[in-house]
Amino acid sequence: MEPIIKVNNLRVVYHKGTTAESVALKGVSIDVNSKEFAIIFGPSGCGKSTLLYAMTGIERNVDSGDIFVKNKNVVKLSAEEQLLLHRKDIGMIFQAYNLIPTLNVIDNVALPLIADGVKRAERKSKAMLLLSRFGISQFAERFPQNLSGGQQQRVAIARALIGDPDIILADEPTGNLDSQSAKVVMETLFNLNEEGNKTIVLVTHDPSYLEYAHKVFHIADGCVTKVEMRNNMTVRRELTKNVNLPVDLLQIKRASSVESDDSVADEEVFLIPRR
Amino acid sequence: MCFCRNWHSQTMFGKDISLMGAPWGEIERDLLFVGWGEETINRAFRNVRLEASRKQARTIRSFWSVKKAKKVVARAAAASRMRMNDILRFAMRIFKVRPGRTILTILGIGVSFGTIFFLVSLGYGLEHLLLRQISSDESLLTLDVFTNNQDAIPLNSDSLSSIKNVEHIEKAYPVVNPSGQVEIGDLVAEADFYGVSESYFGASGERFVGGESFSDGDKTVVLSSVFARIFNVSNTGELIGKDVYIVLYLSHKNIIEGTEDIQMVSIEEPLRVVGVVDDPAGNRIYVPFSLIANLDIPYATVKVVVDDSSNFGTARAAIINMGFNTRAIVDTIEQADKIFKVFQVILALFGITSLVVAMIGMINTMTIALLERIQEIGIMKILGVSNGDIRRLFLFEASLMGFLGGTSGLIIGFFVSRVFNIGINFLAKTLGGNSVELFYYPVWFVVVIIAFASIVGFATGLAPSHKAATMDSLDALRYK
């Protein structure tokens, strides 16, 4: 099977040709398969975030190498293709949540759909479904700064999921959270992978999260030092048992699928599993 | 059928589309024909393929007509956009985030456009006032002919007939100007008499405050409004219908003896007042020329009406050649026009200065708004908001501020001008003058102010919006 994300000999150089030149990635090659939970692990400043952002195609300092996401070379994408990639194929979660403070929760969640020109009623119903899934639908009309960090991060996860992407990229999503909220976020991601069949790439420097992963890329000083395959399914099975999500998962369909159209009906189902 | 999952696979896509029955080959040919380049078409089709993911699958399925397909191709080529109402909603956040700063900036624009509006409507108002006071159509074609020396170049019935013979002259009639006395009831007053024909009123631009002009041959008079005060009548209208008796003083020069005899001629019949003209200062009385024609008074002036404005100059030159002097309202208007031109330039300078100040303020506001929102721009870009939408958003905000500035400027300018007008009229009334309307608001100018303010706003938004649109999304996201 073709890997869903394939990085080939990627070299990223900042401030190239100046005295401040620094090489962030020195020929990194990694593969992430579909439905895998991959962790990029390393100390701060090792280039792991650079690698993650390079996968979205917004890193402009790629010196050489290729990055294929769903068989497209994101280094050479046109602006429109990149937009569509961000709207529909990749969901992003950040350490600082990166919610827009002047938009209420529901607009924040629906932002990728707003960018895509989706009608208000449609995007609102989708956003509300996701919010209720994460147990924060009562905050829909509030502004992000009135929410706790854990709640904000859940809003951000809902936003990452609104376009129903196959891939979730998370950049230290628990970095600003207390241990309880961090656990909720990690279990949510785990569940999205395990039962939602999303491919997850998580950047972290916290070794305690490694047990969630199928595959761990150890990065140091711009190089992959070790690729660790974790095939210990018992650990994951244990985790699955222990996961205690805030709200029972529901089989959720898109609002538009009510007007049934059999050719697209199978696409209309949110990839959120039945328990 | 599952092309959505595989939209990146072109063969798969092609197969799906052909299954859907859209006439793609035909569309492509048509697009080539209407001048789309090969490159553009490829790009557009690639976008259609991308767009042909979930949400458009249904639309594409119904592509049976080339026309409809072309529409979608064109839309996809431009990449999908935010909806206009979302852009509006996002732009309205300027009132939520920093309402004080936004309102102050709008007020800055408003005050500058208010100043321009005030000055321009004052300019128009004064011009309007002047033109309404002095000009009717006929008055612009009228020439006053007079002589500096009644003995050498006399202005009398002989010269009147020679003036009438000049080319392009439609009519010419004399005005005599003896002084005399007027008597109403028991009261007697001194007055300047004007023997005129009925055409005089149209040509001179006199404004009637009551009644109307007389006809030639009537035994009637028209008074100036000052007589209401002289004869102690509260309302000028009450003068109308009264009978007056008049006495004229006629002077006869005796050239040989170097003396001057004054002869008093009284008109025995009572004359009825039919009209009052607006003049609170000069005690003028108009009597029909025919009534005093037989007294052989030398003419003060001859009013000449030229048939067409293009012949005005030639006719005037011909009369000057005969030795007479001339005077015309047109001269006054030309002079007034020059003054108004100067006034307009000064006003434009004031307006432009305040506008430049307001624009600098607005650019400042937009730049700060940009700096504050760099991270937000980064987030939006990384979530799939296109650069074009970011640009539109900033431009829309700036135009909105300009528009609101222009509108508030109109309101400010209007109220200030009303207050100013009331103040001036209050002053005029206490000093015994007439109340006037100093301001005139042309509709086109109101429209121009609003449009121009929006354009100014748009222009100030150009640089910041460009900066926002071309910003690197990752740098923006990491901006602190």
TrEMBL record, chain A:
Residues 5-246 form the ABC transporter domain. GO terms for molecular function: ATP binding; ATP hydrolysis activity; transmembrane transporter activity. Keywords: ATP-binding, Nucleotide-binding, Transport. CDD domains: ABC_MJ0796_LolCDE_FtsE. Gene3D superfamilies: P-loop containing nucleotide triphosphate hydrolases (3.40.50.300). One of its GO terms (cellular component) is plasma membrane. Pfam families: ABC_tran. PANTHER family: ABC TRANSPORTER ABCH.1, IMPORT ATP-BINDING PROTEIN. This is ABC transporter domain-containing protein. It comes from Candidatus Nomurabacteria bacterium CG1_02_47_685. The lineage of its organism: Bacteria, Candidatus Nomuraibacteriota.
TrEMBL record, chain B:
Its main location: membrane. It is found in: Cell membrane. Keywords: Cell membrane, Membrane, Transmembrane, Transmembrane helix. One of its GO terms (cellular component) is plasma membrane. Residues 102-320 form the MacB-like periplasmic core domain. Belongs to the ABC-4 integral membrane protein family. This is ABC3 transporter permease protein domain-containing protein. The lineage of its organism: Bacteria, Candidatus Yonathiibacteriota.
